[in-house]
Specification:
The protein is α/β, with parallel strands linked by helices. It contains 17 helices and 24 strands. It folds into 2 domains: about 270 residues, P-loop containing nucleotide triphosphate hydrolases (Rossmann fold, 3-Layer(aba) Sandwich); about 210 residues, Rossmann fold (3-Layer(aba) Sandwich), CATH 3.40.50. Helix 2 crosses helix 10, helix 5 packs across helix 6 and helix 12 packs across helix 13. The relative contact order is 0.13.
């Protein structure tokens, strides 16, 4: 990243695209542009000699969607800034093998790691906060756990024994939890999806209980994230739901070591003391997690309460090394104090759940912060766009982005949006399908497109693996989008159709046949690859787009 000793040159994929084969619809705009404006200079890369890896488990209570992923990522950042090697994994309780086949409305976007694994979107948070890559080992689902155990049973690995949740399922969960320790991490943070008490989460909770005994008291700890609801009628925060949640966790044999309380209001010392007394934790181990304007403020708010020191003391780890968050603070300062503002209309078909385009939204945040610019996204559902509401929908925007996608739904609205951009000279960036819609026509459904770019969109022949999926570099680079980007840089592609090389082509990718990787003409810019998931190069491309006539 910019100013970082860990550049994406070291993180860049070394794989051939042919290694990443899946159904095209399974990849939902993933691999976020990592945080660019900060770096973590680790003064002592190894504060721990070769020894037992420490494990932190993050559970949730009272309600779902409390922000376990953000709390886990924030803690990981704080610990890494002190010189520890940290990674984070997510255990998801659903029975799907992975989120690749889930509707974005169900689960948000599918985050694809550099080794091609389709994972939970929380892994995007982990990568952005930790400034490091994740892999298939960082996300495990109940479906994958059961699939592995059943395959072993079919092979006869259990020698005819009755296969049960305990010990066979829990043993597989524990194996998956500990597998990351082989990569020589000092601390592994494990986020357990769902809510304590859910039947789906019980095997994970039981596995944590077993691990606490197996690993030893100082090698394992539990952080419980809970909710303190505020009753406006009485003007008070209520602790009872949290008490019940902790008690339910204790009924499963687990005592929480730290309590992190989501709240809309300040938690008084009296309330902290009450929670400490009823939940069997020290008052200093009751941490307030108050709502803030941006998720990137959360690590600093937790640090003010010495959250990282509390955790390190629980794990018997040294606290002598000061935390270095200078670059993170600089990024946050630029983000919160922009010198200018632009508004970009994001036209897509999953906009009612904005997590469906999480990668794009976060990439624009960081690209904007690099230029002291606030990027405001206006979410436009393409399925509702008509000739009559175009002017009102796009009134006052500075730019437009036609989001990637698949299928026929919402295509007419995307075409109308692009026509409006052409008629009003609005800078427009089309990604993947958004690019193809601006060509003459597409063989996909024999669709007539806008004809902005004088080339045809064709289906890849079956002479090689289709869809084209994975990392590739591009050549013959020119144009505004690719300024300060090298031909050695890699971009992430996911597509079965390609645009021919033509007069508007500004870069070429060679897979089966040479095709247009990027196109530019007048106020129109397009990329077949996904810049939001293409690391440094993708980040620079989005930054270049923000510099176009804004």
């Amino acid at each position: 990243m910019i100013g970082n000793s860990l550049t994406l040159a070291s993180l860049a994929p070394k794989h051939n695209t042919k290694q990443f084969i899946s159904k095209i619809y399974q990849f939902q705009f993933s691999k976020n542009c990592l945080v660019k404006q900060f770096s973590l200079t680790l003064p002592k890369p190894n504060l721990m000699s070769k020894k037992q890896t420490k494990y932190i488990f993050v559970t949730g209570g009272v309600t779902s969607s409390l922000g376990k992923g953000i709390v886990s990522a924030s803690l990981g950042l704080l610990l890494k800034s002190r010189g520890f090697r940290v990674t984070i994994q997510k255990l998801d309780p659903y029975i799907n093998i992975d989120p690749g086949t889930l509707n974005p409305y169900e689960h948000g976007e599918c985050y694809v790691t550099e080794d091609g694994a389709e994972t939970d979107l929380d892994l995007g948070h982990y990568e952005r906060f930790l400034d490091s890559t994740t892999s298939q080992n960082n996300n495990v689902t109940t479906g994958r756990i059961y699939q592995t155990v059943i395959e072993k049973e079919r092979r006869g690995d259990f020698l005819g024994k009755t296969v049960q949740v305990i010990p066979h399922i829990t043993n597989e969960i524990k194996r998956r939890i500990k597998i990351l320790a082989k990569q020589d991490f000092d601390i592994i943070i494990t986020e357990i999806g769902g809510t304590v008490g859910d039947i789906e989460s019980l095997p994970y909770i039981e596995s944590v209980r077993q691990l606490r005994w197996e690993l030893g008291e100082k090698n394992c700890m539990v952080i419980h994230l809970t909710l303190l609801p505020y009753l406006a009628s009485s003007g008070e925060l209520k602790t009872k739901p949290s008490q019940h949640s902790v008690r339910q966790l204790m009924e499963s044999g687990i005592q929480a070591d730290v309590l992190v309380c989501r709240t809309e209001h300040f938690i008084s010392k009296e309330i902290k003391a009450k929670l400490a007394q009823f939940c069997n934790v020290g008052i200093e181990n009751v941490i307030e997690c108050k709502d803030v304007d941006t998720i990137y403020q959360v690590p600093l708010e937790l640090q003010k309460q010495k959250f990282d020191e509390v955790v390190l003391k629980e794990l018997a780890l040294p606290t002598s090394q000061d935390s270095d968050l200078k670059d993170w603070k600089n990024f946050l300062k630029k983000y919160k104090n922009p010198k200018k503002k632009v508004e970009i209309a994001l036209v897509g078909k999953y906009v009612s759940l904005q997590d469906s385009y999480k990668s794009i939204a976060e990439a624009f945040i960081h690209a904007g912060a690099a230029q002291d610019t606030e990027v405001k996204l206006r979410w436009i559902y393409s399925g509702e766009l008509t000739e009559s509401n175009l002017a009102e929908s796009f009134k006052g925007i500075d730019g437009m982005l036609i989001a990637p996608g698949f299928g026929d739904r919402g295509i007419e609205g995307k075409i109308l949006a692009a026509k409006f951009a052409r008629e009003n000279r609005i800078p427009l960036l089309g990604i993947c399908l958004g690019m193809q819609l601006m060509c003459n026509a597409s063989e996909e459904g024999n669709t007539k497109a806008l004809g902005i770019f004088d080339c045809e969109v064709k289906l890849f022949p079956n002479s090689d693996i289709v869809p084209h999926m994975g990392w590739n570099n591009v050549s013959e680079m020119k144009g505004k989008l690719l300024e300060n980007i090298s031909e050695t840089d890699n971009f992430y592609f996911v597509h079965s159709y390609y645009a021919e090389v033509g007069e508007s082509t500004t870069s070429v990718c060679d897979y089966i046949t040479p095709f247009s990787a990027t196109l530019e003409k007048d106020n129109f810019y397009a990329a077949q690859f996904h810049p939001e998931k293409s690391g440094d190069a993708g980040f620079k491309l989005l930054e270049n787009f923000l510099n176009v006539r804004f």
